[in-house]
Amino acid sequence: MVFIRWATTGALQEEILYCSPLERIIRAADVLVNVENFYKKHELEWQNLSSVCTDGAPAMLGPRSGFANLIRDLNPEATSVHCIHDTLAIIADMFEKLNQLNLSLQGQHATILKLSDSINSFLQKIVLWKSNAEINVFAMFETLLSLGDGRSINSGIIEHLSRLREEFQYYFLDRNDMNLDVVRNPFHAKPETLQLELQDEFIDVINDSTFKTAFEKEDLETAWCNISLSYPRISKYVLKMLVAFSTTYLHGGKKLMP
């Protein structure tokens, strides 16, 4: 099952693109053939794909391999996001905080901005928890404290936190390729951080008083969608990031993609 998000004037839209069974053992190549057949049938262009969000199935895993890697062969500019729910499933039994993070990223219109903020925050917390664990402070783990002081498994906790941080950095590596400050707060972003062909138009945007007023009053998705005709280059750049799914769990915890 494949869902799609795209930008229209004034809003982002989400719909099911198509659902099709896989008739053989699932490999990344099998999934790609299935999607390619749909693309060819409906004369869709791969260059219009800005981002793909995949789950934790073996054919899908990782931003550097599997289905996401094959997509990049067809469109090198497409970014990939690994569904946070499947990463969390590996270690949710030990940390209830992972479940809280997971739930906070579900729901419609969960954008890459929310993902980036939540992951950055969680990575900083892991560093703090590890530092506390190294001095036998475990106040952040209530269940652990209810069973003892945690000192007997201190080394295991520290090792687990280190591995957890490495896993998050691995799976969410692609988000560092995005200039998210331009999206969330363009009036404090520096034009020189953008590609040369975008800089002049970006300066026009941040000096547009009408856009500034709209940006302060409306949600950022609506504000950016509404200038897509007036400033096509920079709005296209921004909307490519806003239409990217951050998770395959969107509607009240219901999984939309197998």
Automatic annotation (TrEMBL):
Top-level taxon of origin: Eukaryota
Protein name in the entry: SCAN domain-containing protein 3
Taxonomic lineage from the root: Eukaryota, Metazoa, Porifera, Hexactinellida, Hexasterophora
